[in-house]
Hints:
Helices cover 35% and strands 17% of the residues. It is α/β, with parallel strands linked by helices and 317 residues long.
Amino acid sequence: MQGGERYNSINDYLKSVFGKKTVKLSIDAGFTCPNRDGSKGFGGCAFCSGEGSGDLASHLDISSKNSLSAANISDSITEQINRLSSKWHDTAYLAYFQSFTNTYASIERLRRIYYAALSDERISGIAIATRPDCLSDEVLELLDEINKEHFLWVELGLQSIHAETQQSMNLCYKTSDYDRAAAELARRDIRFVTHIILGLPGETEEMILDSVRYVCSSNLPCPFGIKLHLMNIVKTAPLYSAMPDYKPFESIDEYVDLAVRCLEIIPADITIHRLTGDVPRKILVSPEWSYRKRTILNKINKELALRDTRQGAKIQK
């Protein structure tokens, strides 16, 4: 483990790469999603906020999605850096395209946006969040090109491997889409990060652990990183309208217990990018304590120490 921690944190990994604290600047570049524009569905995934789960991102001020310029990207980067400058100094930055589906556009537009960020001298690399069914051969070729010259990772929103959950949450993709995406990215030596949500409606703890085991299976290319998301019910998501009283977890301790058990079955060489999830308090419904990110992380670290366990501790040899 890097830094003497009980899990392989992305913060330590990035510090080893860039030699300093590295921060992601969340940018909304005006993308949409095939699950919103009708090509696959409408309304988006049931848990997704009105901002495409990019509520903390910096939104580009552009009158048309096709008029995006390097100046727009630079302005967004500047806005984010100014917001964070009092918190961190001597920092490296990654441009993080987070909101909606960031590979879902014409190849010309994608190229313009990605390279606009990479051309900013303050940016050390980019991270691109997308759906596993939105990686065409053309997009993969562009990502391969970028990866050969720049620091890059791609984030795949799997969330769950279970077909019943995928259907009830209106994901409009299948586990087989994830399998293909993982294989194609791995074949090109492109780092990818897999998202899994803990606490989706209808899922037992064993179902959640099965999703984690699947992603880490020797039958699939292993991800560079994993994000474990605490399920947040937000006012702007369809799920809140359908299930306003749903509580993913009754207590922080219940969530901490599950997060620790997930860590124990994740191989130690996989970077851990997230162990909870945060949204603006103004749209948060449940769990009411989920905004206490530092408290949750401290409790996870404390529980790992109390159990004398760590990432990968319960992988069967």
